[in-house]
Fold this protein.
Amino acid sequence: DTEVTQTPKHLVMGMTNKKSLKCEQHMGHRAMYWYKQKAKKPPELMFVYSYEKLSINESVPSRFSPECPNSSLLNLHLHALQPEDSALYLCASSQNLLSGNTIYFGEGSWLTVV
Amino acid sequence: AQKVTQAQTEISVVEKEDVTLDCVYETRDTTYYLFWYKQPPSGELVFLIRRNSFDEQNEISGRYSWNFQKSTSSFNFTITASQVVDSAVYFCALHTGTASKLTFGTGTRLQVML
């Protein structure tokens, strides 16, 4: 079983809704990530947090707002999304940002925007 | 720039056949790390193996084996005696010191049939 836990597993939201995706890890990792994955494509990096500070934002639209309340939690707040934002959203963590560290992924949240 | 190529889009085999998934990478860095992940239909990206650029020793883990050859910039993955549960998309990925993120290949979908 994965040690990165994501909720909810499935989410359907309207374009005017506000919702959040949640991620939790208890491996003591200090780097956490959000990836977006469209069907039949590899994951694409969205955000990286290192020691609870935003380290990388891959030019993601502002309708996606990440938050890292503490070293174990990572949220992704969603507002005014478009149907093309429907995708699998994967949370991940690693010990830190050094390149040799393995990145461990959660089970993902399947998002559908209607 | 970093690049990972998985030329095989989709592979179908009959159970108990051996199958090799190809991965070719490009990087100018001398220190780098290569990964294989498995993604079953449920969505979770499952970490399988990590190999650093200074360790060309091939590895066997149960029915899985990996062949890393720096001379050809390849990191191939073989499943021996495939099983239906091996059906998934397999991603090869590269992480270097100069890049701040994993570079994924496009993935190979493996279908193991009875």
